[in-house]
Records
---
Amino acid sequence: KGNFPAFSDIPADEIIDETLQTIAECGIAIEINTSGKTKLSGGWYPADAILERALHFGVDVTFGSDAHVPGRVGDERDEVARRLKDIGFREWVYFKGKDKKVVPL
């Protein structure tokens, strides 16, 4: 839903699936970002429905708090890890330089 909740009703399943397939084929990760809780969207993004589709297509996930102050670094990391496990993910990734590192949840 992002910062534009009215757009969440636009049918986009097909293009979302195509995009996630391309992301998976290219070996790119998507980020679960917790900064949405400080914005109009009121929560993390992407939405669980997109994360479920990402898992289906084999897309790697990473975590970001989009922290602009030290107190927000890693904000809600444990909650995100639990949610990802509930969805079915077993690992997430981070990058050191351009090298992808896989970490169990």
Note: The helical segments are 13-25, 48-57, 77-87.
---
Amino acid sequence: MTSLEQQHQQEEPHQVGVDELHEELDTTPAVALDKYGLTPLHWACDRGQSVAARLLLQHGADVDAVEKRMFKRRPLHFAVLASSDATVRELLAHHADVLAADYRGWAPIHGAAYSGDVASLAALLDAGASVTTQLTARRETALHVATSRGRAEAVRLLLKRSPGDEGLLELEDDEGSTAAQVAARGGHESIACLLGQH
């Protein structure tokens, strides 16, 4: 590798492999599945490769492709779990379904709350995700998920972006716990205080 190529890789590490991907897309469909039932778009999102995701989408990749194994996640699920807000924004620009749930009932908003990725969480809320109506199979809101993981900034954002009259703080999961009770049980005292102030 020449020093110029090394410098290019250091300046733009997210571009590594994009030229090869572009060449591959000339002969291989962007919707091909691997042995795990994943498309190239799933893998690009899993790795937070927004440029590769854009290229795949431009070549016909399905923005809402459902993985074929038991998890049933879509590319947007992978992008939020990778904490890649650039990839999340790219998928949203291509009208990814923000309400799509995986096998546990987790929508992308739950994944962003889990990872504490506030930028992706904000983008999902801007695109129509709901804190109060999108519940997991265990009846958890994104606030429950963020609270259980100790994600204070995500909790702040969810509280700020949720009207107080929606009863968010009173919603209980399948164990009968509110987000404040989840915070107390998990030892997240600062989050419990934050929830108590609302």
Note: The longest helix spans residues 3-11.
---
Amino acid sequence: MQRKLSSLSLVALLGVTSLSFAQEGKEVKLEDVVVTASRVEEKPENAIPFVQVIKEDAPALATSRDVGDVMVSAGTGHVHKYPGMLTGRVALRGLPNDAHGDILKSKVLILVDSGYAGTVNLAKLLVDEIERIEIVKGPASVLYGSQAMGGVINIITKKPKKEGASGLANFEAGSWEYWRAKGGAGYRKGENYFYASYLREGQSDYDAKGFGKYKNTGYNIGQFFAKAGFSPANDWNFDASLLNLRADVDTPGGTYSLTPKDYKNSSLNRLGFNFHTPFFKGLFVYAKDEDTWHTISWNTKTNKKVRTNQASILRDFRLGPVSFVFGGDYINIDVKSKKSPPPPYYPKSESENFGLFGEAKLSLLQERLLMGAGVRQDWFKVKVKRTEGLRVNPRDEDFSHASFRAGLNYKLRDDLIFKTTYGTGFRAPTPDEMAADYVSSWGTRYLGNPDLDPEKSKTLDFGFVLKRKLIHLNAAYFITEYKDKIISVPHPTLRRTQTYVNVDGAKIQGFELNLRTELATLFGLPFSVSPFVDLTYHTKYRTEDSKEITSYGTKTLLWTPKWTGTFGITLREAKWSATLYGVYVGDEKVVDWNSFSPTYMKAVKKQDFTIFNLSLSYSPIKNLELKGTVENLFNRKYEYVQYYPMPETMIRIGLKFNY
């Protein structure tokens, strides 16, 4: 891999600048709200769907490098995490986004500041600029349309918290030549603010337990982030954010087929604009997600660009005891692929989506009972375009789909809430599944099926939220029916031709729990003692796809552990904190892709594992923090994806100036 080691001058400049003008500022206190459950701000206890909120100081966020790491620690289910800066398949309630990074084939919607993130590779979304992550569990297509089958992950980015000038400088080092440097500066006056930061990060090849040096696992990242807000009057707010990420990443291959020289160049550029007025709220997003793979052994270079454009507007208002949200979305996703030497593997394609939605919430019994219901209608146009080097018959197809959700939130007591929802979700057919007509470079013809139905889910859930001074508990049980799964099959009448059909999907049921407690008061301790647990336990996860059962030899839903969980404890005092937590991923059935294995292309059991992580921080003086983390504390052998082992014990230490 060709590494581009650029100067850290911008990091130093931002850090030094922040130190030079930093001054004591009053911190702005913000009320706890969530925005993802209903697309407008509301108190967490008033949200009807189940929402898991991961705040900035939570262990899952504070000790992670990227959002893929956060989801591992969130205990929501399977995470497909590779070395080489790729976290693909992430599941909510057993329904995943796409393992190969195809936005249009994903069943979990990824948002940044309530707009499309522009990628489903969560390793491209670093945690440095995240204020909180809201995870809405269960189908949310009634508000968000396609992909929101399993739920929605909404990443809310930071604003300066203190009035006046602020800044930071952050330096870290660790195992396998890991290093990170970051500088940032900001200014806030009321609701007007500006913030910018730049970071560089790199690491060399790591050692894997039981394998040794896992060559070609290094990476080098640079990221610029900026955010600004302007408020000319009360209830008039305009926010803009810019993200530019560049990475040179080694791609080692699986242990059965190592690729010691392959690498990829990755980037994510995203521009978002949000507005909030007394009349309308809305947003605009432009994003370009790009990867270029350099396969040295085949002497090929493959490039994929995905451009996402989104425009959304909504109006919320209240009439007596009923609050309403009405709005519309326009989403355009354009995909281009190139290969050197040609031809590319896939043709150019485009998906256009226009959706209208509305949801009402009725408040009764002095707001102790909240009942909500909503509907959405989506219209799609998908296109497969002429592509240089491929024999393509350009086609386009149109279709539409409706979604529904209803639920209630009943306060049994001031501190105890019962919730239940029933809703539908869907994943729209992609351009290649519905409109393809081309001959691939290996001679197979791919023919889309214009009669495809969207993939669908129906989910019923129910549970409780308990919120007291010393305990906060979310517990829910869900029942999901997944149907009309889209798969590729040989065409019934045409030779050497693949097409697409709908088949039965899966039946998934399970239990979710998020628990936070505070024990210091009970034991009279002078510092905070906070145990926590996050887990998902699947009581049923059975595929209904007969072709999958026949091909892989199992009725168990693939890449779905029976249970995943995180459990730990945080000790905290004014100057120091310590967190020890374990991550458990249960055994799961996966497909063996090792062509040298006797179980090649069959379902095999991937072993469960538990790893422990330790995080420490200490502030000897105001504005200075010393921190350290130990990942895989007991040096266990583990892997999220079969044949891709994760690192041995990794130690990182750092210091942070924060004003």
Note: The radius of gyration is 24 Å.
---
Amino acid sequence: MANFVLVHGGWRGGWVWDRCVSLLRAEGHRVYAPTLTGLGDRSHLISSSINLSTHIQDVLNLIKFEQLNDVVLCGHSYAGMIITAVADTIPDKIASLVYLDAWLPKNGDSIASLAGPGIGELVKSAGEHGGLAVSPIPLEVFNLNQSDRAMVSALCTPHPIATFFEPVTLSDKYQSIPKKHYILATGWSPNPFEGFMISVRESGSWIARTLPTGHDAMLDDPVSVARLLVLAS
């Protein structure tokens, strides 16, 4: 059985993985879906000190204190930044990397640098949250299924703004991870992650797959996401 660590994206929390967690645990796997500092049920911890490094450390600590090895590490969206840095720091602990419609950074990249001019509109909402965080992007943008929109809207929380501007530091040790998977959600547009899919396909060392879902694939089609995670293990 595999050890899965599933890392949520911006504005979400560990709750977004609940359906996949249940499916994987039913098959006997060990599954962890931590909530990052300042988000979800940890939103009361929001502060100006929370940055990308904080969230990287969240996941590093989980793996350390749960004494995990041979981890299947999956990151959704924003968490692509996190899992890349985690795998780069402890490549000996990671058996497989899975990017689910996620950013795939190079050394020195940040969300702001990858997202380009669009980040300006996003951060304007920080004034509504004391300059500490940015408001959730409307779910319509991600083409989330209608039945989940009310629930997700109620559970999303403002995202710590500094996480978008801190560059990630990488030595490319993560490239040594034996299994690397990229899953692109094709059911929403424009999808800013399409370029990463092209890159990994050209590399020849990645397994690339698509899902015909909106951005929040683990909600739109948890059965398929769980199946692909098992295949990646």
Note: The mean pLDDT is 95.
